[in-house]
Amino acid sequence: MARRVLIVEDNPTNLKLISEVLMAEGFVIDCASTAEHAQMQLCVSVPDLILMDIALPQMDGITFTRLLKADARFKHVPIVALTASAMVGDDKKALEAGCVGYITKPVNTRTVAAQIAAFMAPPYID
Questions:
Q1: Inter-residue contact 38 to 58 (CB < 8 Å)
Q2: Is pTM, for the whole model, over 0.90?
Q3: What percent of the chain has pLDDT over 90?
Q4: How many CB atoms lie within 10 A of CB 91?
Q5: Is residue 124 part of a domain?
Q6: Residue 103 lies in a domain
Q7: What burial class does residue 53 get, using C-beta atoms within 10 Å of its C-beta: 0-12 exposed, 13-18 middle, 19+ buried?
């Protein structure tokens, strides 16, 4: 069974790159450019993992992660923070919000699929 990933990323270039890399590795990809768009996607299907950009327009990824983790429908879905902002403490903020991990941009196209797959295995999922 294919693993489904929702990528929430507002930069079209980053979104295309990550989507293509993951699709080449057999992942099924859903995309959203805002938290609001992602909420609409989540009404249609629940992914196996959410890759969450932290710097989103309107509602940021940290706030959106907190909302999702407070919702019983999505509490079990691992969320991985994706950000170009690699400042000291950013990883801690993402983890405190409910993310299981943290990937910095630009992503390493040779390793990102394996990183994502690792977050879709125990202990990150039940």
A1: no
A2: yes
A3: 80
A4: 16
A5: no
A6: yes
A7: buried
Contacts (Cβ under 8 Å, ≥6 apart) of 79: 49, 50, 51, 52, 65, 68, 69, 98, 99, 100
Average pLDDT of the chain, as a whole number = 92
| Residue 67 CA neighbour count, 13 Å, CB half | 12
2-57 tens-digit pLDDT: 799 999 999 999 999 999 999 999 999 999 999 999 999 999 999 999 999 998 99
Q: Specify the pairing of strand 49-53 against strand 79-83.
A: parallel
Domain that holds residue 8: 4-119
* Residue 68: CATH number of its domain: 3.40.50.2300
Strand-pair category, 28-32 with 4-8: parallel
Record the tokens describing residue 58, joined without a space: 């309107």
